[in-house]
Each structure stands twice: as C-alpha cells, then as structure tokens.
Specification:
Number of domains: 2
Helix content: 40-55%
CATH architecture of the largest domain: 3-Layer(aba) Sandwich
Keywords: Cytoplasm, DNA-binding, Phosphoprotein, Transcription, Transcription regulation, Two-component regulatory system
Protein name: DNA-binding response regulator in two-component regulatory system with QseC
Pfam family, one: Response_reg
Subcellular location: Cytoplasm
Order of helices and strands: EHEHEHEHEHEEEEHHHEE
Distance between the termini: 27 Å
GO molecular function, one term: transcription cis-regulatory region binding
Strand content: 15-25%
Largest sheet: 5 strands, parallel
Length: 220
Amino acid sequence: MRILLVEDDSLLGDGIRAGLKLADYAVDWVRDGEAARLALLDHAYQACVLDLGLPKRDGVAVLKDLRQRGNHLPVLILTARDSSADKIAGLDAGADDYLTKPFDLLELQARLRALIRRARGSATPTLEHAGVVLEPATKRVTRDGKPVTLSAREYALLHDLLSHQTHIRTRSQLEESLYAWGEETGSNTVEVYVHHLRRKLGADFIRTVRGLGYQLGDSA
C-alpha cells in the first residue's frame, strides 16, 4: 500500500517513514503543502498522513483542495496542534482522523489500517478470498488455515489484489501500490511476484486478463 506522508520536520518525518516502511507501506514523503498538493494530483495513494503547520501551504488548505476535487482519500492529520478548535477545524475540513504529537507509532499504524479498511467499505479487519486469509494487523497470511510465508513485496501485492477483489488491476496500478519514489523497479517485477504468489497460493488464485492486467480468480 502506498502512503503519502506530509511532514516538514526532517527528523520526525524520517522516523515515521522508516516505521511505516517496516509495516510494509510504500511511503512518499514531501515536506511542504504545495508539494503535497502536486503529489495528490499526480499519484494514487491508499491514505495520507498530513501535518498542519507546513511551509508554502497550510495542511488545512491542502485538505480542503483535495476534498473540493471530490477526492475521498483517507486523511489522518498528525500535528502538534492539540486544541479543540484545531481538531474541529481539521475534521470539518475533511480529515478522517486526528492524532496529536507526540504519538505512538503503533497507534498510527493501527489508525491507518482502520481508515483504509473503512475506505474499502469493510468492517472486518481481515481480507479473504478462496481460502486465503490476510490479517493486516499481524501481516499473517494463511491458506486453508495453514500459514503462508511471503516476502514484503509478495505480501503488498496480495494485499492490493485482495483490497480490489472485483477489479482488474493494471501493471502500472500495481507498481504504484508497491513502490515509493526512488525505489527501482524491474521491467517484469510485477510478473515475478504474481508468479511467486501463484506458486504459494495456487495457480488459479490470480488470473491474467490479457491486455489489461491481473485479477483474483474465481472463489469457487
């Protein structure tokens, strides 16, 4: 899953990015509000972690611009502004959640999981298809009740496909979900990971839609 982090404090931003990467998120990090506005225009994200006190453009202005364009991306405000007035302003501007600094990184991860889960219209914390169960909180994957060991990229690809069960996912969409800025991708990276998942989860678990991309196979 690809996350946009908007934080102008270099030390804090580096720590948040590292913590989210350990939780298997691909993280794009920008340090001012104008860069955030442009990133949100040009890229698809699963969620945004947004500071309020930003150079060039305030976080509330970034959020209002996002919502005025009809973008329903889950946004978690992460800020030192802890007054009730600031929280009300952020939530009324369109934020989905509000967390004040200092904070616990595990709580931030849990709140992101909840936001992404609600965005896909699911009340359950697990993703399931054809006997395969993925638990985002623990990153545990089972097939017919038996544990399946996946690499970080394999897990990320599986999570993306399970989160879009009724959609065909193009190669570019999958690459956008798997890789942050500056991370090198090979010409056949997605195909390699699809091959690995088929070997571990069954040859028919992922089907190739010729000329379009990939989709989960029939659940029967």
